[in-house]
Amino acid sequence: MNQLSRREQKKIDNRNAIFEAAEELFSARGFQGTTLEAISEMTGLSKGTVYLYFKSKEELYLMVCIKGLEGFRGELAKNVKKKKSLEGKIKAIYLTFIEYSMRVPMVFRVVQDLFVERFRQNISEKTLNDIIAAIMEFLNYGSGFVQEGIDAGVFRKDLDPYAFSILCWRIAAGLIELALLKDPKIVEHDSLEHMFDMSIDLLLQGAKSD
User: Fold this and answer.
1) Could you tell me where the DSSP H helices lie in the chain?
2) Given Cys at both, which of 85, 106, 168, 206 links 27, Cβ 3.0 to 4.6 Å?
3) Tens-place pLDDT, residues 172-205
């Protein structure tokens, strides 16, 4: 019984080691620059052992993205629940994305690869669609609060809720990319922290009805 327990624990440890190495390498080298050989070397496991746990590099990439997005989902639910107003909930979504990305930059960088055309040519349509579906879930979640604001007369009637979510996401992503640079050159890191709040305040202000 104890022998079986140790064997199962070894499997869990191996799987976690492979996953963590893949996360780090995808973040540093991108999908194309990462190989199963490099993952094998980082973990000290043979390439054959890596294949026992994951069928392909693409499967590993998908799991890194999905697990990262699941972590964001947990943070999001907790932070949004604390807010009472629609504006507060929308701002919580925006700032949670930024805070989570800054705390777990590897996940942010790995997911960002999805929006580089040359990267998309290296993964299957199914993998791309699976990850995009998870991202769209968050966009639609935010859109729901925007629609509530439109219905309540808080936001402009001509506002497109989904387009608003896209704008929030891509503006936040652009600021995160600058913040993750050691030296952005064009702006100080302290100024970027202020821009996080300023950007969502400006977006919400532009969305309000007269």
Assistant:
1) 2-33, 36-43, 47-53, 57-81, 86-103, 105-112, 117-120, 125-151, 161-179, 189-207
2) 106
3) 999 999 999 999 999 999 999 999 999 999 999 9
pLDDT in tens, 51-69: 999 889 999 999 989 999 9
Q: How confident is the model at residue 1 (pLDDT cuts 50, 70, 90)?
A: very low
For residue 98, give the nearest of 29, 26, 200 by alpha carbon.
200
What is 58-207's CATH topology?
Tetracycline Repressor; domain 2 (1.10.357)
The C-alpha angle 118, 177, 132, rounded to 5 degrees, equals 50
Q: How far apart are CA 60 and CA 67, in angstroms?
A: 10
Q: How many residues does the chain have?
A: 210
DSSP 114: G
Q: What's the CA gap between 157 and 138, in Å, rounded?
A: 22
Is it the case that residue 144 has pLDDT exceeding 90? yes
CA end-to-end span of the chain, whole Å? Answer: 70
* Domains in the chain: boundaries: 1-54, 58-207
* Superfamily the domain 1-54 falls into: Homeodomain-like (1.10.10.60)
CA distances (Å), 100 to each of 57, 70, 132, 162, 180, in order? 25, 11, 19, 22, 12
At 40, list the tokens: 């094998």
Q: Would you call 93 exposed, middle or buried from its count of C-beta atoms within 10 A (0-12, 13-18, 19+)?
A: buried
